[in-house]
Amino acid sequence: MKNVKHRLLFPMQAKGNVGKSLEIATRACWLSERGIEWQGFDLDADNRTLSRLFPGEVQLVPMAGRADDQDELVSILKKVTAKPVTIVDARAHLDGVLRTALQATRFFNLAKQLNIGVTVTMFPLDDVDVMTNLDELCQFCGSQVEYIVVKNPARAARTKMFDGSPLDDELKALGATIITLPLLSEIVKMNLAYLETKHERGIPFNEAIGSDELGLDIMARGMLQDWTGQMFNQYDRIAGRLLPTAEAEKIKPKAAPALGEAPRARRGAKVNFAQ
Known about the structure:
This protein is of the alpha/beta class. The chain has helices at 20-33, 49-53, 69-78, 95-104, 107-113, 128-141, 166-173, 186-199, 205-210, 218-237, 239-242, 245-249; strands at residues 6-11, 38-42, 58-60, 85-89, 116-122, 146-151, 177-180.
C-alpha cells in the first residue's frame, strides 16, 4: 500500500510473557516523543501496562478470550480511522478471537479500501508450539499485513528454531523486518517500580528520563536513556511500518529523551580577570 493514511499495530500470538507489553509501551513513548497522534486499547485487565502508563491515550477493554469478546474487538476495529496510529496491547491467548473478528468483518479488505496499514508483531521462541502458532498467524495474514519480528534476549537468548527456518524465509519474502529488545537492567526496573509506587501512577520511560522533579536515580536514568535510545533508533529505521506514509516521511533519526535540564555554565563566570 503506497499511501497509508492510518496505521493499526498489534501482537497476535498465543504465548504470553514474551515482552509484548514492554515493546508496545516503549513504542508508545517513541510515538509521543516524535509528536505522532495516537490512540491505544489495552486488552489485558491483569497487567494494564499500556492503560496505566498512558491513561489519556489508552482505553482499557478487558478481555478473557471468550466468544463474546468479538463484539468489543469489532468496536475497536471501527475506531482505527479516528487517529493516525492505533496500537493494541492484547493479552496472551487472544489470537483466536482476534482472527475471528478480523475474518468476520473482512477487515483486511476494508483496510485496503480505507488506506489502513496493518502491522503485526511476532515474538519467536525455541518452542515448537510457539513456532506452530506463528506459522498459523502467517498463513492467516499472508501478504495483507506487514510483519515485525521482535527478538527478546531476556526471554529467549537464542532463537535457533526460527533463524534460517522455512518460517523465517517466508516472513523475509513477505518483507518482514527484525528488531531486538535490548536487555533492560534490573536496577532500572526496580527504580521505576519504586518511582511508580511513590507517585501512585504509571510513569512512561520518556517522562522518567526527562523529568528532574520525579527524582529517578541518576544512574538508572542514564541506563534507561541509553536503552530507550537503542529502541528509538530501531523504530526510526522502520518508521514506514509503524506510521502512516505522511508521518513516516518526516521521521529522521533523533536522540533519546534528554536527561532533564542540562546544567549550564555562565560564560566567563569562573575566569580570573584580575591582572
